[in-house]
Amino acid sequence: MEFDSSYEIKEACGVFGIYDFEGNDTAADLCCGLNSLQHRGQESCGIAVSDTSGPKGNILSHKGMGLVSEVFKEDTLRSLHGNLGIGHVRYSTTGAAVVQNAQPLVLNYVKGTLALAHNGNLVNAENIRARLEQEGVLFHTTTDSEVIACCIARERIRSKSVEEAIKRTASVIQGAYGLVIASPRKLIGVRDPLGLKPLCLGKRGNAWIIASESCALSSIGADFVRDIKPGEILTITSSGLSSDFTLCQEKQAHCIFEYIYFARLDSTLDGINIYDARTRAGAALARSYPVEADMVCGVPESGIPAAKGYSEESGIPFGFAFYKNSYVGRTFIKPTQKERENSVRMKLSVLESAVKGKRLVLVDDSIVRGTTMANLIHMLKKAGAKSVHVRISSPPFLYPCYFGTDIPSNRQLIASSHSAEEICSIIGADSLGYLKISDLSYMTQNLPLCRACFDGQYPMDIG
Question: For 383-415, what is each residue's pLDDT tens digit?
Fold first, then answer.
């Protein structure tokens, strides 16, 4: 089996919304918020805004392929007038990587206009799509997000309000979703009943904000108010805030990979600080897999907090083994093995004086296909490292994810066909230790989790 070293686990999307009660334009703040969520998707981005004092039904939007800084220039932002707006950054897990699939989606329908931005994946999207097509609905994309938007528009015909249409839709869609929805005079946030995808509420002066992560609130000077509850439908209008908790339930299953990798280090999700969670994972690794070594180092950037935790628990000094080139930009799949290896070296170079003659503990968040880690170990040993003991702050990936995380089929996961001892040999490590599944609860302080990519126990029927 050949494993592709260019592969990285990717999140589906990040969402952001603002309603400024004082009537100030929100496009610049939306752009800033999306910049802080760029780690959740670098494929495409977009903004949709509405002026709540203007003609009802008028939503302006702009979206494009690329990073936020590439798509939104000053003149574009100045043209987007509106005190209510939503934004989106995307990495595709359903639907092609084309501008037609960029979000927010803006729909004009019988009873008005709405814009929708979605993070996550549905497991019953095709069934809903087939039913809507039988009712005469025409789809323009193959995305789950358009299924949700069209379902809301269809339900709006027989509902008294857009909130009722959203609730009807949320009661039939199944899967993971964090939604921000803008009707011309309302900002609405919706979170799936299991809490698989994060969503939080913030406030700055007389403006309310909904975001995928709390770091996006900080980026515009807003204060974190609370996490939106799993199953909650939160509506913000000029009259204030109101919530519908009808779909909330006792069972929850927060995505473990938010805490291992996806969320930004300065975010707090559902009461769990991301930095603290990752350092706890490193400490757990040190207790489970002690080793005699001279230095603990992390693979930038995702492995560094866990490496710090390993160092503090073990007493082995923490240090840096790599320099990361921050100006390489986005890495694309390379056609040959040599080009794939070169792309790794372009991003990371070894600090030879720091590693020469030393026994190293190298910490990273995951091993997906194996060859990236093999390349790093080769680089370290070529620079003079005496030994490299690899510690991974997640359990082995054994199963695919169906909820918006781009984890490939188990045929492409190295741990599904090789034991830890075999993987250790394949990557050239002197020893290898994975975080134990039992330590995930310690890492997240007993938060109810979805950890199906590790144990195959999905929190819902995936069909």
Answer: 999 999 999 999 999 998 899 776 656 677 899
Residues whose CB falls within 8 Å of the CB of residue 106, separated by 6 or more in sequence, listed in order: 48, 59, 61, 113, 114, 115
Q: Do 390 and 377 touch, CB atoms closer than 8 A?
A: yes
Distance CA 100, CA 86 (A): 17
13 is catalytic: yes
Q: What is the pLDDT of residue 93?
A: 54
CATH assignment at residue 240: 3.60.20.10
d(CA 269, CA 276): 11
**Cβ pair 325, 348 in contact under 8 A:** yes
What b-and-e string marks burial along 194-222, b requiring 16 or more CB atoms within 10 Å of the CB? Answer: bbbbbbbbbeeeebbbbbbbbbbbbbbeb
Distance of CA 22 to the CA centre of its chain: 31
Q: Buried (b) or exposed (e) across 372-410, using 16+ Cβ within 10 A? A: bbbbbbebbbebebebbbbbbbbbbbbbbbbbbbbbeee
Coil, strand or helix at 375: helix
Question: Cβ distance 86 to 117 under 8 Å?
Answer: yes
323 shares its domain with 199: no
Tokens of residue 138, six digits: 């025409």
The pLDDT confidence band at residue 148, using thresholds 50, 70 and 90, is very high
CA distance 451 to 463: 18
Give the active site residue among 13, 31, 151, 453. 13
Q: Given the structure tokens 């087939």, which residue do they identify?
A: 130
**Cβ–Cβ under 8 Å, residues 354 and 362:** no
Which pair of tokens denotes residue 407?
């984890």
179 with 185: CB under 8 angstroms? no
Domain count, the chain: 2
Mean pLDDT of the region 54-73: 91
- Sorted by sequence, the CB contacts under 8 Å of residue 26 that are 6+ apart come out as 18, 19, 20, 49, 82, 83, 84, 85, 207
Over residues 235-270, the pLDDT tens digits come to: 999 999 999 999 999 999 999 999 999 999 999 999
* Domain containing residue 112: 13-252
Q: What is the pTM (predicted TM-score) of this model?
A: 0.92
In the three-class reduction of DSSP (H, G, I as helix; E, B as strand; rest coil), residue 1 is classed as coil
In a domain, 126, yes or no: yes
Report the amino acid identity of residue 15.
V
404 and 353 within one domain: yes
Establish if 5 belongs to a structural domain: no
Element (H, E) at 179: strand 178-183
In this structure, are 302 and 241 located in the same domain? no
CA 265 to chain CA centroid, nearest Å: 12
